[in-house]
Amino acid sequence: MANYFEIDFLSVEAKKSGDAITVRYEIDGLTYIHVVDAGFQSSGDKVAQHIRTYYSNPTYIDHVVATHQDGDHAGGLRTILQEFDVGALWLHRPWLYAQEIIHRFATYESVPHLERRLRTIYPNLAALEEIAIERGIPIHEPFQGAQIGAFAVMAPSKARFLELIVESDKTPESIEEAEEGLFGKATTAVLAVAARVMTFVAAAWGAETFSPNETSNENEMSVVQYANLCGEKILLTGDTGRGGLQEAAAYAPYVGLSLPGIDRMQVPHHGSRRNVSTELLDRWIGPRLAAPALPGQETVTAIISSALEDTHHPRKSVIRAFVHRGGRVFATEGQAIRTQCNAPARAGWTALTPIAYPHEQEE
After folding, report:
1. What digits encode the pLDDT tens for the residues 230-253?
2. Cis peptide before 260 (omega within 30 of 0)
3. Is 3.60.15.10 the CATH number for 4-339?
4. How far apart are the C-alpha atoms of 61 and 135, rounded to whole Å?
5. Residues 72, 18 contacting (CB under 8 angstroms)
6. To 10 degrees, what angle do helices 123-135 and 111-121 make?
7. Counting beta carbons within 10 angstroms of the beta carbon of residue 255, is it exposed (0 to 12), middle (13 to 18) or buried (19 or more)?
8. Which of 19, 215, 313, 348 is the most exposed place for a label (fewest CB within 10 A)?
9. How far is CA 70 from CA 19, 74, 103, 247, 305, in A?
10. What is the pLDDT of residues 62-119, one digit of tens each?
11. How much is the pTM?
12. Measured between alpha carbons, how far is 34 from 67 in angstroms, rounded to an integer?
């Protein structure tokens, strides 16, 4: 059989969206399985069953990647680590760097104290580390430049990751925050409440409006991965934001990636308006087209992990933006989505219809 890949975006159904992605690919006769997040803890069994059903009932998984701390991504990976033999767990562990960043905090003089605090703040990552150590699974840091099988880590760099920890609202108050006072946090809280009220306006082809607010530091910590499989350029983004996409784009030449030109892309953070911008999508995918691409002439496949009950995701402005650039956009919403090239046929799986272009967007 020729080289192939299949990437499954599994449905994580709750009132809040989650991510669970499984990948199988073959290169020169060798097959690899690569798991990226597994939704909530309650999703783990479903992900494990999917792997057994469609990936020839394996007992071994080559790579497991926890993109970041959030429970809708990392929770279900506990099951994967417990039920399979795993070659490597790729995991950020903020507490390992307490010694390097303690000077940035106003109230912590003891490194062990800061380590304990960081474990408490990032409990899902700490739980995965505990399981991996107990089962003898090697743990690696997925910083920019790491190679996870066929996938290159594009972001975050270690330096940026440590800066995100220090600046996070979840971490102990840094010296900088103590000097600035609480005004910034109060403003953020007000904006978060305001964002819940959303109105829609009719919009012409090509018009794009994104949120002026940025995503959280925890989302920005997400591991961004790139692979060229079967000549297809694939980008998995987790919940990364504009900063992560910018950092990853700047790193593209180091992995032989010429932008724009992504063929298949995970839309960050379930299709949030806070994670992308016109400029970033131009850089990754290309400029807006003068008119919609004709059926069959689309140039990029964009997949969104979003739950049926999640009324906040995906945003219409984000769907529009990908279509503006010749994209076919799909959302999980109660169904598993498979994107593949040369992969073994699956009985019962049928072609999907892309999401229709919205003629309105968020104000």
Report:
1. 999 999 999 999 999 999 999 999
2. yes
3. yes
4. 14
5. yes
6. 100
7. middle
8. 348
9. 10, 6, 26, 21, 14
10. 999 999 999 999 999 999 999 999 999 999 999 999 999 999 988 888 999 999 999 9
11. 0.93
12. 13
